[in-house]
Amino acid sequence: MDDIVKAAIKKWPNVPYCYGWLALDARGDWYLRDEPTQAAGPFPQLKGSLIQHDKLKAFIHRNFAADERGAWYFQNGPQRVYLQLELAPLVLGVRRLNLGETGAGAAAGFEVQAHTGQDVGAVQSCWLDEMGRLYLLTEAGLGVVRSMDMDAAADAVASGVWGEPQEVAFADMPARFGFVREPVPASV
User: Fold this and answer.
1) CB neighbours (10 Å) of residue 132?
2) Average pLDDT across the chain, whole number
3) Is 66 helix (H, G, I), strand (E, B) or coil?
4) Among 1, 18, 79, 125, which one is least packed by beta carbons within 10 Å?
5) Residue 157 has pLDDT above 90, yes or no
6) In the chain, count of helices (H) and strands (E)?
7) Residue 80 neighbours by CB under 8 Å, 6+ apart
8) Distance of alpha carbon 108 from alpha carbon 56, whole angstroms
9) Hey, what long-range contacts does 174-178 have (CB within 8 A, 24 or more apart)?
10) pTM value?
11) 150: CB partners within 8 A, 6+ apart
12) Percent of the chain with pLDDT over 70
């Protein structure tokens, strides 16, 4: 977390939490969801405004974390902005390493990185939901593999790098892996 964010939390410790205004889709893109967007329909059917500003995305990435419930948020200065997740808390990129190349979190010729640019560490297991989406449980948490990286991920699965994919129902994933897709205030 940025030092300026830590200082803002200390200075204004009782700022109310924000819900429904920020969302993460299955490609790792961030969306702002203002009140009219929220009223018009649920995420991801109605996504909202795509955040394209690179410095804002980098700020979100540096201040992205989960609370004790497994609800993910962006700490925006003194205000905690809880996220809606389309699929999982992390969106993972997978790439094949070239011969002799090493990378952070590399295993048997493949590197896995979160949408935040964070090294996710070792892949502990892999999972397939009923829609055929591939998820990896990593040291950093659960992530869905981006659709554009499925070719490299399929090669990693075929080579046995992450073990045999296990089946899991999408609806069971939040409870099984300890995350909240659509956080709401504790009093609701």
Assistant:
1) 7
2) 91
3) strand
4) 1
5) yes
6) 5, 12
7) 15, 17, 18, 67, 73, 74
8) 34
9) 174/70, 177/88, 177/137, 177/141, 177/142, 178/70
10) 0.88
11) 134
12) 93
